[in-house]
Automatic annotation (TrEMBL):
It comes from Ranitomeya imitator. CDD domains: Ubl_TECR. The keyword Transmembrane helix applies. It is found in: Endoplasmic reticulum membrane. It comes from the Eukaryota. This is very-long-chain enoyl-CoA reductase. It is an enzyme of class 1 (oxidoreductase). The lineage of its organism: Eukaryota, Metazoa, Chordata, Craniata, Vertebrata.
Length: 416
């Protein structure tokens, strides 16, 4: 081998190994990057708030989150109108409709992306606890003033002289026990779904409780008061009725308290517990009112006093109105609510809601609405002059009405 052949052999390039080249290519090539999913654009709402009486535009809220609650909207409205704090506001979809709940979510309401709400001023507010403490403390103090016969009530010769009748002392114990129990329940038992009530109500409530307490106490503790006709037997029977109903009323309040967790507004169907006093839930929706009326009937039998009987009658009428309202709300909210319950008295005033009555209180659908297309939503039949148009899909609005009324809503597609 000569020198030239050696040099040419050295300069000749070596053939590359195919396997090593493929490894290099595979190592150098990176996997394709996955495209990040496109972020879904948030659809903001525009909320226009009008005065329910004058239709004057009070506020316009721009870029409101779809998951904002009515409580959030009230706080936003309060920033532009500090004189109307949230507890004083009532927002509704119709000028004469019902107030929306604070936990209602904007995107779940039958409104479009441009929502119109109507505002009503509820007036100055005061907490329920303050109202209850005031209206219950008054009768307790007023009754004791008559019981101890303070001066300027019955005359100088009867000042601070106790009655000789044992039923008078027993009536004072029962009356004081009732209102002390109410005060303690207000502080430690009751959980209120609404934090406040109109300030004007405290004057009306105090006139009712304080006035009747003074009227009853004046006659029961009067020096010329006469005991019941049937004597000790009548008094013992009345005390048994009073104590039985007081224990029943307290048991129902405890059962209702356990249905609602602290700090929430959750509503559940009340059912009897192991406590026998709660078995009245099998027959009535508001057994606390039933026991309350029973307590005052027992007190009226014990004292045989006409003002007590009138107080029991007026209280029964008022509590029947409250019980019927709560009974209707239970029937509307819960489809499986026990049908045999009556509001306050077993087997009396049983209320059943018909579909026709329900439909009169609901907004009407437009005659034609295609799926996922804008449709017209009108006010209630009585307020056709306030008809308004919202960009709401038929599917969404039907779901809202179905949750509210428990009825199916049919959407008809118009053929062209």
């Amino acid at each position: 081998m000569d020198m030239n052949s050696v040099v040419s052999e050295i300069r000749r390039p070596k053939p590359q190994n195919d396997s090593s080249a493929s490894v290099k290519r595979s190592s150098s090539s990176k996997p394709p990057k996955k495209k990040a999913p496109a972020k879904r654009a948030t659809v903001y709402f525009e909320v226009e708030i009008l005065d329910a009486k004058t239709r004057e535009k009070l506020c316009f809220l721009d870029k409101v989150e779809p998951n904002a609650t009515i409580a959030d909207i009230k706080n936003m409205f309060n920033k532009s109108h500090p004189e109307w704090y949230p507890a004083r506001q009532s927002l509704r979809l119709d000028p004469k409709g019902r107030s929306l709940k604070e936990e209602d979510i904007l995107q779940n309401l039958p409104v479009g992306t441009t929502a119109t709400l109507y505002f009503r001023d509820l007036g100055a507010q005061i907490s329920w606890v303050t109202v209850f403490l005031t209206e219950y403390a008054g009768p307790l103090v007023i009754y004791l003033l008559f019981y101890f016969r303070v001066p300027f009530i019955y005359g100088p010769k009867y000042d601070f002289i106790t009655s000789r009748h044992s039923v008078v002392h027993l009536a004072c114990i029962c009356h004081s026990f009732h209102y002390i129990k109410r005060l303690l329940e207000t502080l430690f038992v009751h959980r209120f779904s609404h934090g406040t009530m109109p300030l004007r109500n405290i004057f009306k409530n105090c006139m009712y409780y304080w006035g009747f307490a003074a009227w009853m106490a004046y006659y029961i503790n009067h020096p010329l008061y006469t005991p019941p006709v049937f004597g000790e037997e009548q008094v013992k029977l009345a005390v048994a009725i009073f104590l039985f109903c007081q224990l029943g009323n307290f048991s129902i309040h405890i059962a209702l308290r356990n249905l609602r967790p602290a700090g929430s507004k959750t509503r559940k169907i009340p059912f009897p517990t192991r406590n026998p006093f709660t078995w009245l839930f099998l027959l009535v929706s508001c057994p606390n009112y039933t026991y309350e009326v029973g307590s005052w009937i027992g007190f009226a039998i014990m004292t045989q006093c006409l003002p007590v009987a009138l107080f029991s009658l007026v209280g029964f009428i008022q509590m029947t109105i409250w019980a019927k309202g709560k009974h209707r709300s239970y029937l509307k909210e819960f489809k499986d609510y026990p049908p045999l319950r009556s509001p306050i008295v077993p087997f009396i005033l049983i209320i059943r809601l018909s579909t026709a009555v329900e439909n009169r209180s609901m907004p009407r659908l437009s005659p034609y609405c295609a799926n996922k297309t804008p449709m017209k939503v009108y006010g209630s039949p009585k307020n056709t002059d306030h008809a308004r148009t919202s960009s709401v899909t038929c599917e969404k609005y039907a779901a809202v009405l179905e949750r509210k009324a428990g009825n199916s809503v049919r959407c008809t597609v118009k053929s062209h």
